[in-house]
Design goal:
About 1% of the residues have low confidence. The radius of gyration is 24 Å and the shape is globular. It has two domains: 203 residues, Preprotein translocase SecY subunit (Orthogonal Bundle); 203 residues, Orthogonal Bundle (Preprotein translocase SecY subunit), CATH 1.10.3370. The chain has a three-stranded antiparallel beta sheet with strand order 4-1-5. It is mainly alpha-helical and 441 residues long. The protein starts with a helix and ends in a 6-residue tail after the last helix. Helix 16 crosses helix 17. It is built from 17 helices and five strands.
């Protein structure tokens, strides 16, 4: 293993790519700690210290920004606007035929869709930065420290030009992060956007583990660490699992050459949806809490019953109602996302066009029905797996009082394992091209 790592740094091209990637990551993390204009850094740190372990409305976004959101830094929004824009672009393929046509046009169409995603990212960044600044001005960014005076004085200047400058700065920070991701994809190693998300989440692991050790003791810390390793091993196993459907191609004569006649397979992963259903479910569950937050009663008045019910059951994840709704939403969104990203009829038509068939299944519609049948059966354990992994932080919070940003579960562990496996595979492939021996054996 150490010799393989040594070969990485003895390969000039690979060494240059990894060095470039690490440099971009360093700049990205540095920007996460630089406060935006007119932000009182000391007050923010005081409120952060008093908000440890809280289950605030913005914890998911804060996770994807590597903690930059709640620090109101220039990279406060992180990569979340780009993730949202990418998901919206994928969903629009079902609604708008033009987007589906662009998707089928190959590289030129993909370039156009990427451009649309960039424009949408900037628009979402403007909207999210405006919302974030508004919430910070109202003193509602740190819900558990609402009585602390410093938490209502996070912004030193309320003038319109100051707010405008903050919005422009945070939006520009999102655009810069998007450019960083594209640079890493082009000149570095791995997928740039995924690596930046990986770095943002991995940066929260040491503080989350240390918080567990300080609040619960060293014994609980060791138990959490052991369980985390087991969860990580299980996630690796499931993420690598796939159902391989055999495909045979008939021989074709084109001129004097023979094409086809080979055997291959269609890989259907157990978790084809990735982490998207978890993000969907979390975002949807945040909406009632957001509505209730903007319907708080005035001083001396009683809150409506529906606001009280939402605050008791849909804000904190330590009750069974929240967990059941969260689990069911993840299962439903898994089926929905797989249905719009994998089209059995399109796959069957492409196989028929190039002379491919599944042994024992007729080409055309019977093939599409068979693929849909297999996909439905494989998606069931995949959706249950996603729901259980997403519930691990909530169960840990209810059982041992661990931080809500429990590192070994939910979206964090799925992204860490997925991106890590993909990056290692790319390094392994490049090593095999040059040394005939890869990183993995």
């Amino acid at each position: 293993m150490f010799r393989a790592i040594g070969r990485i740094f003895r390969t000039p091209d690979l060494r240059r790519k990894i060095g470039f990637t690490l440099a971009i990551v360093a700049i990205f993390r540095l920007g996460s700690f630089i406060p935006a204009p007119f932000v009182d850094f000391q007050n923010v740190q005081i409120c952060l210290a008093g908000n440890q372990g809280a289950t605030g409305l913005y914890q998911l976004v804060n996770l994807f920004s590597g903690g930059a959101l709640l620090q109101l830094s220039i990279f406060a929004l992180g990569i979340m606007p780009y993730i949202t824009a990418s998901i919206i672009t994928q969903l629009l393929r079902v609604v708008i035929p033009h987007f589906d046509t662009l998707h089928k046009e190959g590289q030129a169409g993909q370039a156009k869709l990427t451009q649309y995603t960039r424009y949408m990212t900037i628009a979402l960044a403007v909207l999210q930065s405006t919302t974030l600044i508004t919430v910070a001005r109202a003193g509602a960014l740190f819900p558990t420290t609402s009585g602390v005076a410093e938490c209502s004085q996070l912004i030193t200047n309320d003038a319109w030009y100051a707010i405008l400058l903050m919005v422009i700065t945070m939006t520009a920070g999102t655009g810069l992060i998007m450019w960083f991701g594209e640079l890493v994809t082009e000149r570095g190693i791995g997928n740039g956007m995924s690596l930046l998300i990986f770095v943002s989440i991995a940066a929260t692991f040491p503080s989350a583990l240390w918080a567990i050790a300080v609040s619960q003791g060293f014994e609980i810390f060791l138990i959490v660490l052991a369980l985390g390793l087991l969860v990580m091993a299980a996630v690796v196993f499931v993420e690598q699992s796939q159902r391989r459907i055999p495909v045979q191609y008939a021989k074709r004569m084109v001129g004097r050459r023979t094409y086809g006649g080979n055997n291959t397979y269609i890989p259907i992963k157990v978790n084809m949806a990735g982490v998207v259903p978890v993000i969907f479910a979390s975002s949807l569950l945040y909406l009632p809490a957001l509505i209730a937050q903007f319907n708080q009663p005035a001083a001396g008045e009683t809150a409506p019953e529906w606001v009280v019910w939402i605050q008791n059951n849909l804000v904190s994840g330590d009750n069974w109602i929240y967990m059941v709704i969260y689990f069911l939403l993840i299962v439903g969104f898994t089926y929905f996302y797989v249905a719009i990203t994998f089209n059995p009829e399109e796959v069957a038509d492409n196989m028929k066009k190039y002379g491919g068939f599944i042994p024992g299944i007729r080409a055309g519609r019977p093939t599409a029905e068979y693929l849909d049948y297999v996909l439905t059966r494989v998606t069931l354990p995949g959706s249950l797996y996603l729901g259980l992994i997403a519930l691990i932080p909530l169960i840990a919070f209810a059982a041992v009082g661990a931080n809500q940003n429990f590192p070994f579960g939910g979206a964090s562990i799925l992204i860490i394992v997925g991106v890590g496996l993909e990056t290692v595979k790319q390094i392994d492939a490049q090593l095999q091209q040059r040394h005939y021996e890869g990183l993995l054996r």
